[in-house]
Amino acid sequence: MNFDLHGFGPALWAGTLMTIQLAVASVACGLVLGLLGALAKTSRSRILRLLGDTYSTLVRGVPELLWVLLIFYGSVGAVQAIGEAIGQPQLELSPFAAGVLALALCFGAYATEVFRGAILAIPRGHREAGLALGMSRRRIFWRLVLPQMWRIALPGLGNLFMILMKDTALVSVVGLNEVMRQTQVAVTHTKQPFTFFMVAAAIYLGLTVISMLALHVFEKRANRGFVRSAA
Amino acid sequence: MTLPTPALEVRDLHKSYGQLEVLKGISLAAHDGDVISILGSSGSGKSTFLRCLNLLESPHQGEIYFSGEQLQLKADKAGALQAVSNQQINRLRTQVGFVFQSFNLWPHMSVLDNLIEAPRRVLKQSKAEAIETAEALLAKVGIADKRYSYPNELSGGQQQRAAIARTLAMQPKVILFDEPTSALDPEMVQEVLGVIRGLAEEGRTMLLVTHELNFARQVSNQIVFFHQGLIEEQGTPEQVFEQPQSERCRQFMSSHYL
């Protein structure tokens, strides 16, 4: 079988790189948001708990596509105001930045619940052992809770990352040249939708498989010392 | 005659869970070298009492002194006493070891890392110094060969011995044992009791909540019998085991001992 890309190969490759950058940047910011959200939701302060609840409800209640559009178009006024304030009137939010913001926001909202579950899954006794040895709450979190949370949260986070990877396609609506948009451009030019949509599908599938393999390595590392018991 | 300052002293300790008062005014002093076993049926408040001493549970009333230094407490909105100063409670906790029924080793760290974590981060020991102490302690409790193993690769008895070594690594002045052998299979109980016996013979100050009556009688110089949140009987092992004064204590001894 001969796959003729009509010269769109380099553009698709560039789109793939853009998709990867978008996904990696979004997951990095999203993990931070998710961690903060989970800490807020399990906090002793009622205000922080309310804040965490509001975040996860609000973000999960609105479609990802709408977040992309809302952030890209909705931020124009705000960004312009900031730009004028710092003497850069031409400042604007790039499609990439808007995409990262929207996807990170959504990933973070779902990750909040995954992290919260992980925090609750760590036996109280592990924290108590730290307390009994005179460790501060902060140190207990960094040394005892966080490394264990990671292990418990990884399967759930991996799942969310798969979804995020494909949600990157949504950012094509604001003109970011990632896989989906490059594909659409190619389709418009060549009138061969099937060929190019199949290529796009293969690219997403390939990225997903690679991230699954990476996840497997992470999980293996995180599970050091945990014997899978039969009981 | 003035008695020396007790290593640990508690005055009139009260603790409630909602309406249920589980400790109704406990006073107890442990002097240097004392080994005090706390006995009583389940629900009598012995574990809660032990956990209140280093504020793993918040008491509602009472005073706690470590070597004469009073632990500063203030009531929160719910009436439970919390430490006034995190600094003070964390410093005092380094001086009071606590051994849990369920070991509570950290499963994501090797045994050696479990032992050096607090000495390095809290006592600010150098890594080399902490490792040297840790290896000596692991040898002492008989599991030197397990230092690079993870806790879940150890038997229950080995885990509890590692947990005791972790506590010893802080060089505590007093060690509290909360039913240290209750989660163990019968054949592993003796190896842990052997370690605790060794510590008693070194002259360490210890409070021990246990159901191992024979053991308590052999290692303790004082026995305290709890009943419904109060000290019902207190004295030397001979007094409490041979001639208990209270009816409850007599019943407990006759049903649990011999």
Please, could you describe this protein's structure?
The complex is a heterodimer of chains A (231) and B (258). Chain A has 231 residues and is an all-alpha fold. Chain A has a single domain (9-222), classed as Orthogonal Bundle (MetI-like fold). Chain A is 77% helix and 0% strand. The longest helix of chain A has 33 residues, at 9-41. The radius of gyration of chain A is 21 Å and the shape is globular. The model of chain A has no long low-confidence stretch (mean pLDDT 90). In chain B, 37% of the residues lie in helices and 26% in strands. In chain B, β6 (73-75) and β7 form a beta hairpin. Chain B starts with 7 loop residues before the first strand and ends with a helix.
Helical fraction of chain A: over 70%
Tell me the CATH topology of chain A.
MetI-like fold
Quantity of strands of chain A, as a count: 0
Number of domains of chain A: 1
**Helix and strand composition category of chain A:** mainly alpha
| CATH topology heading of chain B | Rossmann fold
**Content of β-strand of chain A:** under 5%
What distance separates the N and C termini of chain A?
Answer: 52 Å
What best-fitting shape of chain B do the alpha-carbon axes yield?
globular
If helices are DSSP runs of H or I spanning 4 or more residues, what is the number of helices of chain B? 9
Q: Please tell me how large the radius of gyration of chain B is.
A: 18 Å
Compute the CA-based radius of gyration of chain A: 21 Å
Helix run count of chain A: 9
